[in-house]
Amino acid sequence: MFIELKNRKLSAQISDKGAELQSFYSLQESREYIWQPGTDVFDGHAPILFPAAGRIDRSRVLIRGKEYPMSMHGFAKDRIFAVKQADPHQALLELASDPELLRVFPYRFRLQVQYQLFPDQLVQTFRVYNDGADDMFFSLGVHPALYCPVILDETAADYVLRFDRPQNTYRIVLEPGTRLCTEQRVPWLQGEREIPLAESFFDGGPILSGGYDADAVTLLSRRSGAGICIGIKDFPYMTFWGPPRRMSLICVEPWCGLSDFKGTGHVWETKAGSNRLEPHGVFIRQLTFSPILTRP
After folding, report:
1. 150, 176, 9, 143: which is closest to 76 by C-alpha?
2. Which of 13, 85, 198, 256 sits CB 3.0–4.6 Å from 92 for a disulfide?
3. How far is the C-alpha of 48 from the C-alpha of 46, rounded, in Å?
4. Is residue 229 classed as helix, strand or coil in its secondary structure?
């Protein structure tokens, strides 16, 4: 099932599978920003990562001392969400624990994803509810794939990732092959706002980084001024991923969570970067998507 939101300037399409944003389109610019699969580069659009963000070593975890299966990026992206509300300007979708989910994730929870379309932006709000009697542990991330270059006759070298203010961040060195986190950190942005892109930007693989204190990051062409701004407030980690050698897309992924570390003990409750939610508590995060207009 697909839900379409639309006003005079913007449209968005959402699937009930994974509550995934499938399209974000500017009617003013006649431009799609979200990757539309048609090649073998990436078969998604903007998956929601829950209750894991990143790689899980050996695809298993220990929760309360018991072993459970857990795949990379979690199970929410593959589940059908209930549509609780839908009209031309907003939609609310929900994934709730049930007997099937409790067999693989022993927490009573609800994950709500709300989309609100305004004249100048799309707002995506995540609410995680702990409906159980014990603390709940989880990660939450988003994996939006953006066309890059945005303008077809440009190249990746025309683009930068620009944060709204200077950042002091680090890259997490990943173990070759497994791409699990290591304890090694490499300084990255040091009082800077921009990351220049290039066709070879991902020749070394995905980039997992932390230390962010930004409200927004913009994929911006220095040549045409085209781009898209994503609000990322309160997401401390970012992963960037795309094809090597010749860029056609860039995944700009805000995470509240991390991949497993090399040598992990698999204990879910002590997983680095994860979030603890008290009984009957709610965890809220929000993304925004705003096109950068180049036409009057």
Report:
1. 143
2. 85
3. 7
4. strand
Tell me the per-residue pLDDT of 207-220, one tens digit each, with 9 for 90 and over: 999 999 999 999 99
**Is 59 in a helix, a strand, or coil?**
helix
Structure confidence by residue, pLDDT tens digits, 151-188: 999 999 999 999 999 999 999 999 999 999 999 999 99
Strand partners, 50: none
The two structure tokens encoding residue 17: 């599978």
What pLDDT digit, counting tens, does each position of 229-262 carry? 999 999 999 999 999 999 999 999 999 999 999 9
Q: Check: CB of residue 139 under 8 Å from CB of residue 50.
A: yes
At position 185, the amino acid (one-letter code) is R
284: number of Cβ within 10 Å: 11
Q: How far, in Å, CA of 57 to CA of 52, rounded? A: 12
H helix intervals, the chain: 99-102
Angle subtended at Cα 38 by Cα 37 and Cα 40, rounded to the nearest 5 degrees: 85
* Residue 291 to residues 23, 133, 188, 220, Cα–Cα distance (Å): 13, 42, 27, 10
- Is it true that the peptide bond before 51 is cis, omega within 30 degrees of 0? yes
Residue 26 CB: number of other CB atoms within 10 A?
Answer: 20
- Phi, psi dihedral angles at 62 (to 5 degrees): -110, 115
Are 159 and 222 contacting, i.e. CB atoms less than 8 angstroms apart?
yes
DSSP secondary structure, 20-55, as one string: -EEEEEETTTTEE-B----SSS-S-SS-EE-S--S-
